[in-house]
């Protein structure tokens, strides 16, 4: 739901990445590391995260999905309000189908197998992000289905009346399948809590998602924005039905440490549920590109706190980046991985993919990780009241 308030600004910088003054070192994403898949939903603390340290979810004897510890978010692919989709008169004239295709190609050069996250409501028309994945997949002559794991979402909007269930979920799933063109959806996610928690009841939606599994349309179920009590409720329902529940997606970054501080990540791990972290670089705020006088354009509600709280984090990311030869974004993403989550930064072009891929092939020292822990924000409300109320309701986890 966050992201649907009107944008505050419609003009601004294009999607160039931040280039620090110090020398960057290209990350070693695949070589010289132990080739091992982990049947835990996290990368153990003694392992360097790379594309050879795969997370394998589901029953260890019958794994369902497997992907690298860094994925990518496809929310920008067609989004006008937050990311300024150029063809729809958005502010970023460099963001279009061509830049998305370049990002697509760069993703598979750097990270595979990879998790791509999308949703039926991402894009200037519903499903445009899913269509972008389907289009690029159909045009990719090097495509290999095991390289790609796709998570998409069902949105429990209040105008989807309880009387419409379960058929409305079946139709939404069929629409996503048609737009993606991948045969099956790897992880079909509930996008967030239903309206006020009872429109419809959580149990109603979850059982409809389970039906999609029984119908052979999806490989596993995931959720988004749920707290641990809600996660346990979903877990109980799906376990009774014999349906795999593999992930819970929440906003998690140094600008919002809540899922780690509250124990949500650890409690999900105990249930065998991976935590997927959206907005892991604060919707661009932790890249070093922005400051108090140059803030992100568009409607980027997540991590929108007063800048004087963010600047010390950015300064520390730059300090660690200079020491390690990594960009601020790569340091921020590596911290998320160290905390047991799979970051899925949104990318607009190939340069941003390369920047984010620097998060792999190394690991923060314990000292640097601890310093970031102290500086990171917990329970820091958005300073715009309407925005805060919207985000507070939507982000239960």
What is the helix/strand order? EEEEHEHEHEHEHEHHEHHEHHH
- Global morphology: globular
Outline the biggest β-sheet.
8 strands, parallel
Structural class: alpha/beta
Can you give a write-up of this model?
The radius of gyration is 19 Å and the shape is globular. Strands 4-5-6-7-8-9-10-11 form an eight-stranded parallel sheet. The chain has helices at 97-110, 128-139, 167-180, 202-214, 228-241, 258-261, 264-270, 307-324, 328-338, 350-357, 366-375, 385-394, and strands spanning 36-38, 53-59, 62-67, 72-73, 114-117, 148-154, 185-190, 218-224, 245-251, 274-278, 341-343. Residues 1-8 have low confidence and may be disordered. The protein has one domain (48-395): NADP-dependent oxidoreductase domain (TIM Barrel, Alpha-Beta Barrel). With 397 residues, the chain is of the alpha/beta class. This is NADP-dependent oxidoreductase domain-containing protein. InterPro entries: Aldo-Keto_reductase, NAD(P)_OxRdtase_dom_sf, NADP_OxRdtase_dom.
Give the tags.
single chain, 397 residues, alpha/beta, TIM Barrel, 8-stranded parallel sheet, 3-stranded mixed sheet, 12 helices, 11 strands, globular, disordered N terminus, NADP-dependent oxidoreductase domain-containing protein
């Amino acid at each position: 739901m966050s992201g649907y308030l009107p944008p505050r600004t419609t003009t601004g910088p294009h999607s160039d990445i931040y280039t620090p003054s110090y020398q960057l070192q290209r990350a070693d994403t695949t070589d010289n590391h132990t080739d091992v898949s982990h049947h835990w939903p996290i990368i153990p603390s003694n392992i360097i995260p790379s594309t050879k340290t795969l997370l394998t979810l589901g029953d260890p004897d019958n794994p369902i999905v497997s992907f690298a510890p860094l994925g990518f978010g496809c929310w920008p692919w067609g989004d006008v309000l937050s990311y300024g989709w150029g063809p729809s008169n958005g502010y970023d004239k460099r963001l279009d189908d061509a830049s998305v295709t370049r990002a697509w190609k760069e993703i598979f050069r750097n990270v595979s197998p990879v998790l791509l996250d999308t949703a039926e409501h991402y894009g200037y028309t519903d499903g445009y992000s899913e269509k972008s994945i389907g289009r690029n997949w159909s045009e990719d002559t090097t495509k290999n289905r095991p390289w790609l794991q796709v998570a998409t979402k069902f949105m429990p909007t209040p105008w989807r009346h309880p009387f419409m269930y379960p058929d409305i979920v079946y139709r939404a799933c069929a629409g996503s399948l048609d737009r993606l063109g991948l045969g099956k959806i790897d992880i079909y996610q509930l996008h967030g809590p239903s309206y006020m928690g009872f429109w419809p009841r959580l149990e109603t939606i979850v059982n409809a998602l389970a039906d999609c599994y029984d119908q052979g349309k999806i490989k596993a179920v995931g959720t988004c924005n749920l707290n641990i009590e809600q996660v346990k409720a979903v877990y109980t329902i799906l376990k009774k039905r014999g349906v795999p529940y593999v992930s819970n997606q929440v906003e998690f970054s140094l600008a919002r440490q809540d899922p780690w501080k509250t124990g949500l990540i650890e409690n999900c791990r105990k249930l065998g549920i991976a935590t997927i972290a959206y907005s892991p670089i604060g919707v661009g705020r932790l890249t070093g590109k922005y400051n108090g006088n140059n803030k992100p354009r568009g409607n980027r509600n997540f991590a929108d706190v007063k800048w004087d709280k963010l600047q010390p984090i950015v300064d520390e990311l730059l300090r660690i980046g200079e020491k390690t030869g990594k960009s601020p974004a790569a340091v921020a993403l590596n911290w998320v991985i160290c905390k047991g989550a799979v970051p899925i930064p949104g990318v607009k072009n190939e340069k941003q993919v390369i920047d984010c891929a620097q998060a792999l092939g190394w690991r923060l020292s314990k000292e640097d990780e601890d310093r970031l822990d102290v500086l990171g924000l917990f329970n820091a409300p958005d300073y715009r009241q309407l925005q805060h109320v919207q985000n507070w309701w939507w982000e239960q986890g």
